[in-house]
Amino acid sequence: MSHFLLPLSVRPMEAKTADAIPEEGGPWQYEPKWDGFRCLIFKDGRDVELRAKSGKPLSRFFPEAAAAFRDFAPPRFVLDSELIIEIDGRSSFEALQMRLHPAESRIRKLAVETPAIAVLFDALAVPRHAKLLEQPLATRRAVLEELASGIDPDAGRLSPASRDPEAAQSWLRDASGGTDGIVAKLRDDRYRPGERAMVKVKRMRSADCIVGGFRYLNDRREVGSLLLGLYGDDGRLDHVGFTSTIANAERAALTRKLNALEAPSSFTGRSPGGPSRWSTERSGDWVPVKPELVVEVRYDHVTDCRFRHGTKLLRWRPDKSPKQCTLEQIS
Questions:
Q1: pLDDT computed for residue 173 by the predictor
Q2: Could you give all domains of the chain from N- to C-terminal order, each with its CATH number?
Q3: 44 neighbors 75 (Cβ within 8 angstroms)
Q4: Which pLDDT value is given to residue 176?
Q5: Are 168 and 21 within 8 A, CB to CB?
Q6: Containing H/E element for 115?
Q7: H or E, element range at 242
Q8: At what angle do helices 104-113 and 63-70 cross, to 10 degrees?
Q9: Count of CB atoms within 10 A of residue 126's CB?
């Protein structure tokens, strides 16, 4: 019977969002922020468990990652990592999502075609270091580097780390490898399960989008969010996401403006559907408008030509033609 060094219920340390890379109040350690699934790896001999940030098991969906650690020394440990799948040198969040909920035969096929690997960035427990969670990051990183020196590249790799803010700035600028920003950690701090004790700075981009519709607020007939669209190569307007960062003082006037543009339909390609992995908003109750208004929004991730999260409304673009708003901006 397995006896992991830490309970499977332990939660990974999380990060709070910042607009700039922290330099004061350190010493800081900077690492790339990987665009994957957060994963705690528990090992006891041949028994390996992969757990998501939510605590849900991941081994069923990534059997190749679990198998790769079974023969990896030492025989017992708990590591913090990010599961990624690389396609053409870039991590692919879409490929990760394809693993969730398909049939077991499909998972086995994908495990061979697009194997996942673990990018390791912290050590939570190893047999010879008592109470490693209570040790500062500098100590845990040294333990992790020693452990990862003999790692099988099929199992994973060590995440880069630096104390130089210039290196962090270069990682923040460089989107070529599929990372999406940087994470800053205090080198003299212990590991804090479940706490937002790290700092993340995301790589943000902007796009000019067409307002193809809107939703009302739940409690009154004023605009609550705007539905965003972009034209594809086929000339059809695809729904790509939403923005709800509308100032309260502007809602009444904006509602009147949108009401005047109401139309029988707007999105001619992909339309808003049910709640999905991109959004949990209600989607059956929305109002189409003529595709005449353009807004610039800030976003972080794109998955399958959609904004993975909500966007921030930056400004209206009356100078921009709707026909100039194409999917090329985010592809």
A1: 83
A2: 22-202 (3.30.470.30), 205-329 (2.40.50.140)
A3: yes
A4: 66
A5: yes
A6: none
A7: strand 237-243
A8: 60
A9: 20
